Amino acid sequence: MISSKQSKPRISRMANMFLAGFLLIVGMPLLEARPVSYAGGWTVMQKNNWERNRLHVHYSPTVRNSLGATAEIYRHSDREDYGLQWNRLLYRRNTRFSQANLYLKLNGGLARLDPFDEPFLKAEVAGDWETRRWFVAYSAMGKYADALDDGSFHQTARLGVAPYVAGFGSLHTWFMLQAGHHPEETHSEDQLILTPLVRFFKGPYLLELGWSSNDEVLLNWIVRF
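-> structure tokens emitted (225 positions)
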């Protein structure tokens, strides 16, 4: 168990990271929750769930690639990951009524957990298919950090529906159910985590709010500029 003396600095770092990310969106012009933006576009992404708080800032030199920096704080330990990430659009199919995407994400850097400083590697494959009414997504990620863990595997799936079809420039709303599978967790109740959530986006802003089956809050936001 982490003592209150140990937890205060970690909480302070989490608050500072969230504030720094939020300040980047002030004063920023259609947003999609994509790991690659339009050519020449910048993206600020922050994810907050039961496991970690993550800030990712990236630049897209082309419509198929993005390069950026990441910072993560794990909520139930003092581990911190700092690294660089490359996202690659492997496949995209557009039809009159739908779009399908497949991405590769590679993330590497330094993982810190006193007294260890270890290099880490993460690889993720993520795909989605959507219409203006329905949304389906799946991702699988493996990560490794030598002395800090023996490697782990996470997979996440989402199913979403839009209660109304909004026009260009309007507020879009989605109701989604996320299932996260973490087979390395020792407690069986933590291996499968369900999270009902609602997604809002308009223009360059996206916000997601949810409550997970392990009684933890999900809060994600994205801004493109």
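The CA atoms of residues 52 and 74 lie 4 Å apart.
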